[in-house]
Amino acid sequence: MSITIKDIAKLANVSHTTVSRALNNSPLINEETKIKIKAIADRLNYVPNYSAKSLVLDKSYTIGLFFSSISKGTSPGFFFDTVTGVNSTIEEKYNLVIRGIDDYKDFTNINDKRFDGIILMSQSDNDNPFIYHVVEKGIPLVVLDRELDEKSLINIISDDKEGTFKAAEHLIKNGHKDIAIIEGKEEFKSTKRRKDGFMEALIQYNVPVHSEYIIKGNYSMKSGYNAMRELINLSKSPTAVVCSNDDMAVGAIKAVFDSGLQVPKDISIVGFDDIAVSEYTTPALTTVKRPIGEISIAGGKKLIEIMNKENYKGEKIYIKTEFIARDSVLNLNKNYDIK
């Protein structure tokens, strides 16, 4: 027979309400009583009944982790880093439910009876109706990855524009002037931010921008492969390519080798994200480390924090990218001087 709160209450000579509050670390119970009750619970190997607890406290003990889409445009590395980061912060009493917004025809089932809090890895403006619905239902919400104008929300993002600026700048400083970019999924905010950083670097260093060097991809390896084949087949191929994520860079590297060329001897390639495989490609991929793990951990911690508060203020948190130079960029002119 399992131990209940009433059993602990009898031994502690307090009410079962006091036991419940003590085990939930309520500020209404003094520290001495908390320590006494928790010691008895440990001695009896008490295991909380979260189903019963959820009815009493009107909590579901479920946290939702939502993506714009899991099957379209979300790379395996990105998905893994996000889930691992968030999961590492979630207390064992909570269940983590992972879904794509595009799994839902409507949001009727997204309510405060099913979710105590929601983390959204937002990749598109198309997520806005979902965000408005969650806010309207009063569910604590943290939005990751996409910058929002709404000041009442917790918004944690990486500085993608700065990241692609550094990537393009590195190529320019290594003597490259014919530089292309393979863009990501068109409707994703990250695609625009990364292109903006790339363009800003070229303009700042007076490097020509060629329209034929701006190729659309969709964040998949296959799209990176196809885009690179398109660039190689131009009458004048670029000497360097910035790929808007590492998956496309991996595809681009294969396309170069399949065309009888070499990386970086013939074409230099820079990625974005620093997924696990980047260090082990041939050659090792120069890339921008996008701290998805850090963003996800920060998001999980922040959600737990606001779930335990009556009121909270909106906040925008930026987490910096890091440029990582490896072996996929050739220095065309070691004496190249940038003023």
TrEMBL record:
GO terms for molecular function: DNA-binding transcription factor activity; transcription cis-regulatory region binding. Keywords: DNA-binding, Repressor, Transcription, Transcription regulation. Signal peptide: none annotated. Residues 3-57 form the HTH lacI-type domain. CDD domains: HTH_LacI, PBP1_LacI_sugar_binding-like. Transmembrane segments: none annotated. InterPro entries: HTH_LacI (IPR000843), LacI/GalR-like_sensor (IPR046335), Lambda_DNA-bd_dom_sf (IPR010982), Peripla_BP_I (IPR028082). This is Putative HTH-type transcriptional repressor ExuR. It comes from Clostridium ljungdahlii. The gene is exuR.
